Structure formats: structure tokens, C-alpha cells
Amino acid sequence: MNDQNNNNQNHVPVNTGRHMGDFVTWSLAGMKNRKEVDQYLIDLGFTTFKTVTNTKGVTKRTAEKEIEIPDVSSINCSKRAVDDLLCVRGLKSDYTIEKIEKGSKTEKMVWAIIGKEIVETGTLVNDPTLTIEKDARFETKMWISFDSPNYYNGTKSARDLFTVSHPDHPLMQRAVALYNAHLESYTTNDIRTGFQRAFQNWDGIKLKKDGGLYWVPSTQVDRVQQWKKFMELTDNTAMVFPQFDAKDTIESLQAQTRESLEGQLEEVQTALASYIGGDKTRTSTLTSRVEEFDTILAKAELYESLLGNKLDTLKSDVEAAKTALLESLKNPTSN
């Protein structure tokens, strides 16, 4: 019986009513090797490849990613290493870091590692009523430098772009180790960003403002189970809670989905307010917003079918906004 209950945590039970979807949440643990994570995404079918040939006959292999983890550049790896450098007990009391502008921003970034020493400026006397004056003395101790890969046009390896002034100093050795680790790893935030975007693309909705809990409809149950396998392979924890057609559950999801769609509509309209009336170079951006209206309408249809929502008013608002946008594209000079 216990084994059956454990299995039911991973698979949808067949005798508890119509499956409406899943609540999903997670716990992430530490940085993960990039190559391993990318391979897991391929093995699980989240990354697929296709070969395309352009009009000049040049063939290229492209990747299509359902879970697209942000591609972190060596520049960002250097910034992450510097940000993490003093995140050890005691270091922040001994050092500060200051970014120094040196040359063009496209060529080099330099950080000064400044030592901080507290010194007494008064004379110590045997009188407890007197205050001993103290002052902080600052002195630049070391430097970290990062050379832009664009400036060197690929003539330097990513590891060689990051240099330190005192390679034998423990703090500088820590800086180099952090940079190399970031070059080879995804952070928890990188991975979280990738699958949160996927949840939204799978018609899911965010149930908490910070994004720590999503509902994904039952039409995507296979993807959710594959995501759960991905989390297990990467030594992270995925929690999936199937939801069925109980009255309270449906009412709650109806309210959440309506609020989510209204929020998405408001976001698109807010963005459009800064575009409409602008120059003609905004046409491609405006066209992409038409697709966003279509996405909202498709989700509304899905939620009506699955949850019994009555979203006629919202759909009418989306159609009206879409029509107005299409008119503005037809008559750009009238904006």
C-alpha cells in the first residue's frame, strides 16, 4: 500500500476524478555543470535539433529548446566571480571592491581590491572614561582585470581573459577559481529562469508573485513528468501535486487563471503605450505584440475548456486591443 501511495506522487491517479493539472514547486541546490545539464535536456527531449539550408545552399544545424537556460557570457562570469569573492565570513570586514573604469567598456574591466585596516589614532592611557579614537585606513592591495573577448576577437581563451595582480595570494586564487567555476556551471537562478519560462509556454500560471509555485494544466502532464526527471538528474528537488475537479480547486483556479490573463494583457498594453506613436523602426516589435495577444486568447480558450471559466469579457478586451494594434500597423503615420 505504501508503494502505491509513493507511486501516486509521480503519476496521476485514475480514480480520483478528472485531472485538472498540477501544482509544481521545487528546491534547487548549488551550481550545476553546464555540459551535463545541456545533455540531460537533450536526452529528455527538451532540446531538439534540425538542419536548415538557406537560399545560398549553406546548411546549418539549429537547436530548438523548450527549457532554454540563459546563455551566460564570459563577461557575466567575471562579474559573478567578483560579486561572490567576498561572500565568506570575515572577508567583507577586511576588504572592499571598487570597479575602476579603464579604457573603453568594450575593451577591459578592472576591479581594485582595497584592504581595510582599523587603526587607533589616539594614545592608549589607563583611564576607562577616555575614548580611544579609531580610524579606518584603506589601501589598494590587488587588482582583477577582465579583457573583452570582442576586443581580442577570439585570440584569447575564455580562461585567459580573467587575470589577477597577485596570483599567489589566497584571495586572488579564490577569484580565479570562482571565475573558472562560473564558466563551466549554471547557477540555480539560471536553471530556475529556464524552466519558469517553460511553465509559461506550457500554458501554466504563476501562483506566487515570486514565481515559487506554478499551476500547469493537464494538457502538459507529460512535459511536467519529464521536467521532474530533469530535476532528479540534476540533484534538485521537484514537487508535483496533481489537482482534480473538486469544487474548491476549480473555483480557485478559475480566479487565478483570470487574474493571470488580465495581468498578461495589462503587461502587453503597458509595453504598447511606449511603442505606439514612435517611429517606423518599431514595426517588428509591434508585430510581435500581435502574437502575444493571440497567445492570451489561446490560453483563455484552453482555460474555458478545462476549468469552465467564463472569460468572454477578457477575450473581448484582447480582441479590441489586437484590432487597434493591427490598425496602427496599417496606418503608421496616423499614430
Key terms:
four-stranded antiparallel sheet; 12 strands; 45% helix; 11 helices; alpha+beta; 3 domains
What secondary-structure arrangement, pairings included, does this model have?
Layout: H1 2-8, E1 19-27, E2 32-33, H2 34-43, E3 47-53, E4 59-65, H3 74-85, H4 91-94, E5 95-100, E6 108-120, E7 134-147, H5 149-152, E8 162-164, H6 170-184, E9 185-186, H7 188-201, E10 205-206, E11 214-217, H8 221-233, E12 237-244, H9 247-275, H10 283-307, H11 312-330
Helix pairs in contact: 3-6, 9-10, 10-11
Describe the structure.
The structure is a single chain. By secondary structure, the chain is α+β, with helices and mostly antiparallel strands. The chain has three domains: 2-69 and 188-244, no CATH class; 74-186, no CATH class; 247-334, no CATH class. Helix content is 45%, strand content 23%. The strands form four sheets. The protein has a four-stranded antiparallel sheet with strand order 10-11-1-12, sandwiched between helices. A four-stranded antiparallel sheet has the order 5-6-7-8. A hairpin with a 5-residue loop joins strand 3 and strand 4 (59-65). It starts with a helix and ends in a 5-residue tail after the last helix. Residues 1-15 have low confidence and may be disordered.
